[in-house]
Amino acid sequence: MTVSAMYPGTFDPITLGHEDLVRRAARLYDKVVVAIAANPGSKAPMFTFGERVELASSALADIPNIEVAGYEGLTVDFARENNLAVIIRGLRAVSDFEYEFQLANMNRHLTEEVETVFLTPTEKYTFISSSLVREVAALGGDVSEFVSPKVKEALLSRCGL
């Protein structure tokens, strides 16, 4: 039985924490689609939709069973339309749990065909978030330990550094 999963998010930008979860998910599932949301809701992204897809594709290019795709609309609709049985969500801290639990329950309410699985990042990545990385980069801090070299280059360029 082959099981395919998706890891949805805005990935603005993709961090080493995201990469860690993707690499670990790639060992668990036959195929993992990193699904980048075109409409990030209330978030105002630093990078365009196309740039976020490109940066994620570049960062994950060495993993054979990973696909990067953009999507619009409900995550569960994308999962059903692409025969993805699992939605992967990352939990960095207890503070993430309440929101992620509500999201998983809403997704289950919308469709019982798709399950949500929670993964925790490797300990050294638990404090990394895209928003913190953007802030550090904007203030001229070194983001080398948080993102891949190509993402770092894009961040510095976007911040005018």
Describe the 3D structure.
The chain is built from 6 helices and 5 strands, in the order E-H-E-H-E-H-E-H-E-H-H. The protein is α/β, with parallel strands linked by helices and 161 residues long. The protein is globular, with a radius of gyration of 15 Å.
- Secondary structural class: alpha/beta
Strand line-up in the sheet with most strands: 3-2-1-4-5
Distance between the termini: 49 Å
Q: Give the overall shape, derived from the CA principal axes.
A: globular
**Helix fraction bin:** 40-55%
Query: How large is the share of residues in beta strands?
Result: 15-25%
Tell me briefly what this model is.
This protein is an alpha/beta fold and 161 residues long.
Features:
single chain; 161 residues; alpha/beta; five-stranded parallel β-sheet; 5 strands; globular
Topology, pairings included?
Layout: E1 4-9, H1 16-28, E2 31-37, H2 49-59, E3 66-71, H3 75-81, E4 86-90, H4 94-110, E5 115-119, H5 130-138, H6 149-158
